[in-house]
Design brief:
The chain has 3 helices and 6 strands; from the N terminus they run ββββαββαα. A hairpin with a 5-residue loop joins strand 5 (about 95-105) and strand 6. The strands form 3 sheets. It has a two-stranded antiparallel ribbon. The chain has a two-stranded antiparallel sheet with strand order 3-4. Strands 5-6 form a two-stranded antiparallel sheet. The protein has helices spanning about 60-90, 125-150, 155-170; strands at about 25, 35-40, 50, 55-60, 95-105, 110-120.
Length: about 180
């Protein structure tokens, strides 16, 4: 904007000032929050990092280390929760049926392929527990997404590392289904 142009701010909007070239947006839009900046590019810093809640601001390297440990554990918990839900689902399945169907073999013979069909009752304690765990899983996943959206490199690394370690610790319990009648590779 050159000196001959003026900038008018409507009375309904809060003034917005951008002084850091790495920050492209401010969070002060008249909602009472003042001065908080939202980074739109990745950065590494420990000063004035607002994490998930308005009152939770990281200002020191020690606070950042603590936040990274917490985020790491939350990401690992998320991976464990996903696997735990799968294990609970398998344990509580009912109405197991086996269906056989003919499949042509490679040499012209007919092979019988067996499929297992399982179900679950809607009005059961198991389904209620699954529903509550699903809600927790969704909330945790959005928290992790919002942590990543701070664009703080330390916090992003903590999310990725926690997810990796959580997957490593819990995914080996995940059932792998191998179809022994599979002919195409």
């Amino acid at each position: 904007m050159n000196g001959s142009q003026t900038h008018h701010v409507h009375d309904t909007m809060a003034p917005t000032a951008v002084t850091d070239p790495h920050i492209h947006h401010t969070m002060d839009h008249g909602g009472g929050h003042s001065g908080g900046m939202m980074h739109m590019t990745f950065y590494f810093g420990c000063q004035s990092v607002e994490l998930l809640f308005a009152g939770f601001v990281i200002n020191t390297p020690g606070e950042m280390v603590g936040a990274c440990i917490g985020v790491f554990l939350l990401a690992a918990f998320y991976e464990g929760l996903k696997i735990g839900r799968e294990i609970l689902l398998r344990r509580n399945q009912v109405n197991v049926r086996y269906n056989s169907m003919p499949v042509p073999g490679t040499d012209g013979t007919v092979l019988m392929e067996t499929h297992k069909t399982v179900g679950q009752r809607m009005l059961s304690l198991a389904h209620t527990v699954q529903t509550v765990l699903h809600v927790i899983q969704v909330v945790v996943s959005y928290f992790l997404m919002l942590v990543f959206m701070t664009y703080n490199g330390y916090l992003c690394i903590a999310v990725a590392a926690g997810a990796g370690v959580g997957y490593f610790l819990f995914s080996w319990k995940k059932a792998v289904v191998v179809d022994i009648t599979e002919h195409c590779h």
